[in-house]
Design brief:
The chain has 3 helices and 8 strands, in the order H-E-H-E-E-E-E-E-E-E-H. The chain is of the alpha+beta class. The relative contact order is 0.26.
């Protein structure tokens, strides 16, 4: 019988995906883009990129489950087996979701190869958007307010190549002691940073 918390978390993640997703905090990975205040970037045009990429990193053929090492999984207390899927919201993109039963959270990495970063900017998604950078790559962090207590989520969408985005999603799965927006978004940024570290090292 499916784990009820996983089903609920997956449903909430789907709601986030419809808006396209994300958020952050001042972690070691995602930082506000130069020239931004770090607040909601509502004044940016829908197709504006946060900044130029330092280089192009293609996601074609990349297994999203390979982008988190065992050490990184331990860092996030991800103690359940990875679950692979195809995300129709992102045109069949490959996704990898891993739960942490001990912390009542789930984390996912999605390799989007048929949508560009312009689809995740202000005016294109539901939620509070701000421009950040992850290891020098432009990104959008998005937090969608109004979720049920204990089921908050945040995503970070990184512009890695033309028409390609690395998406990191961090969500609570019915947490008895909710982490709060700042911590959820901080962990989403750290998750994106970890996946980018692995990607760039490959």
């Amino acid at each position: 019988m499916p784990d009820r918390r996983l089903v609920v978390a997956a449903a909430l993640a789907a709601v986030a995906a419809l808006g396209a997703a994300g958020c952050s905090g001042g972690s070691s990975g995602a930082q506000p883009a130069p020239g931004t205040s770090g607040s909601e970037a509502t004044s940016a045009s829908p197709d504006r990129k946060p900044s130029d990429r330092p280089r192009e990193v293609k996601l074609d053929g990349k297994d999203p489950c390979s982008l988190l090492t065992d050490d990184q999984k331990k860092r996030f207390a991800l103690d359940r087996p990875p679950q692979q899927s195809k995300d129709s919201t992102f045109r069949g993109a490959s996704a990898c979701t891993i739960r942490s039963e001990v912390e009542d959270i789930s984390a996912s990495v999605t390799t989007i190869t048929a949508m560009g970063i312009e689809n995740f900017g202000p005016g294109q998604v539901n939620g509070d958007v701000r421009e950040v950078q992850v290891q020098g790559f432009p990104a959008y962090e998005i937090h969608t307010p109004g979720t049920p207590t204990g089921y908050d989520f945040c995503t970070v969408n990184v512009d890695v190549a033309d028409g390609q985005v690395l998406r990191a999603h961090y969500s609570e799965s019915g947490a008895k002691q909710p982490l709060g927006k700042e911590e959820i978004c901080k962990r989403a940024a750290q998750l994106a940073d970890a996946a980018m570290t692995t990607l760039l090292a490959g």
